[in-house]
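User: I'm putting together a teaching handout on how multi-component assemblies are represented. Below are the sequence lines for each component of a complex, exactly as they appear in our records. Could you produce the 3D structure of the whole assembly as structure tokens, so the students can see both representations side by side? Please keep the chain order the same as the input.
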Amino acid sequence: MEFTFTDEQRMIAETARAFFSENATSARTRAAMEGEGIDRALWRDFCQELGFSGISIAEDAGGAGLGLVELAILAEAAGAHVAALPMLGSLMLAAQAIAAGGSEAQREAWLPGLLSGEAIAAFVEDAGLEARDGKLTGGSGFVAHGALAELCVVTDGSGAWLVRRDAAGVSVSAQTTMDQTRPLAEVRFDGASAEALTDPAEGLAAANRAALVGLAAEALGGAQASLDRTVDYARERVQFGRPIGSFQAYKHRLADMMVEIEQARSAVYWAACAVDEGSEEAPLALHAAKSFAADTAFRCAADMIQLHGGIGFTWEHDAHLFFKRARSIQTLLGKGDWHREQVAAMILGEAA
Amino acid sequence: MKLGFSQADEHFRQECADWLNGQMAGEFRDIKGITKLTGSPERRKEWEKQLAAHRWSCIGWPEQWGGRNATLAQQVIFAEEYARAGVPGRVNHIGIELAGPTILTFGTEEQKQRFLPGIAAGETIFCQGFSEPNAGSDLAGVRTKGRLEDGEWVVNGQKIWTSLAHISDWIFVVTRTEEGSQGPRGLTFLMMPIDQPGIEIRGIRQINGDAEFNETFFTDARCPADSYIGTVGEGWKIAMGLLAFERGVSTLGQQMGFRNELDEIIAAAKANGAAGDPLIRQRLAKAEIGLRLMRYGALRMLSQTDNSRMDGAALTYKIQWATWRRSLGELAMDVLGQAGEVSAHDEYEWDTLPNLFLFSRADTIYGGTNQIQRNLIAERGLGLPREPRWTA
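Assistant: Of course. Below is the structure of the complete assembly, with chains in the same order as your input.
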């Protein structure tokens, strides 16, 4: 038992933090928001210069063979800057699904492009999807980075298919999305040619684990950044002749944020470790981490707006980026209430 | 980063569990499952001696003083298995977790020899004399006076919230020994025997009807001149050092107690149908998640760290568990419904869950109120401006 980073993990964390704080600046994120919702240069550097994109992909699939703890470290660092990257769709969902559930040919066809950042993938969930003779009909209106993806990993919850953007019968339209750092798109399939993943159960399970940990870690990074930025403001902003951080009403609220964040930190790394170690606690930990960290991010970002006063409500200030990202994390891959209901069923002994 | 325990540790876990379960099924079966601190005090004093006889009373202490020099992981494991086996809390918690480590760290060789064997053997039960009617959150405001007279300390004043003073043998007392001093200066940390005419103990009846806390009155109470720990006039340093020991591995055992409480609530919800209520289900899930996060927060806190972000776990731990448990008490009552508001006893006495509801109101007060915790977190954890305090 050693529930703290190893030296290697600490190095990864330091490298990732430095990379994002230097490069994922507010100006660049805002430029991405004005454009297609992705900072392509940042993504290329992350994948190619840092070489971190394959960190939790198996070595035989072209990755570094590390675990979800390392993925969480990266996602936390990216989340701290609301970086506009396709990390969720490309790495946590598609690459994981293909690496764990794809055939040799499917891995070879797609993983090099996804890990180098040259290809972007999106994940499409449609419980009512129709699959007939290798053709899919259905789609979703809420596909993260769907308008930019060359590849869609599509699932109805049990099967999983790969669909190329340029296949006949695929139509995509970008949505005006509240969180402009991870815009959603409507993706429709009308008899689109699809290739089934060889082992959909394994692929979907791997994608689900990585994405829940990754989103929770991203939420943690956002929550901590919200707190850190508000603490800085509390020290420098003076009213009534005192820094506002000297008022108990204010500092107690910051303390409450820290209490939540420390629990979120335990949740994220517990879930990541539990998966990596194959612990029987892993399913519960994933539900716990996603729901708890997402709520923490939302609460902290909302408090950041309130505690900044008027400036926190402006477009110019970054608070709204964290607030909107937190809201989207709450909804993605199951709302908090749904995850908690799964936990309730487990502890009441009702789980299947 | 690793959550699992080593093979050797798992063997140790089995050894602990076997011995504890054996005791709770055998000679000490009568105390199994007691949750109130005040239940069966005489038998629980015998249990302290039994633990000592098998070298389980203070496993984290050095072997020389009756411990096992146990690693942190082993201490965690013992604390978890102790609670899992349904063994009641230690009546000598203060002696083992606070007085002992304080003497080990700050005491003289002679003091170690005088006190440690008795504490380790379960023969010397300690209690803590810190708070006073006018020195609660502001502990440095103590007024209980100590003066040297004819080779003895003579102490006058009053302490309050002295848990289990009525069954203790010794009390450590923060006294003001420098006439006219204020705040943290001029205080001395004294060890006093309780069985003497100058000390009077009166129970304080709490909202749950029980009385585990006391008022302790000192009227020319006495102890020998060499009964101070550290330096005369610098007792504050000792008191603060002692409080740092409080966040030790015993928290993991405390959590197993919480586990038992939550399990009882889950069982009650299944039995009376409350488990079908979606709102109750959400709250049960939140309670479960909170408890697990508490465990992993504690493991983070206990793991070696040089990562400043990780140290936040220690700073936020008290408010986290206290607030969680207070909510758990409310959840218990909402699960029980009106049945929770009537007792099967003729006396004003409550079973585990209603008692949890009432007692947990104290959790967010003792050991530093939630409000004081927030000050500490904001000031030490976030570097925000400090509240006004005693000037040295």
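A couple of points students might notice: Chain B touches chain A through 54 residues (CB under 8 Å). The longest helix of chain B spans residues 308-336.
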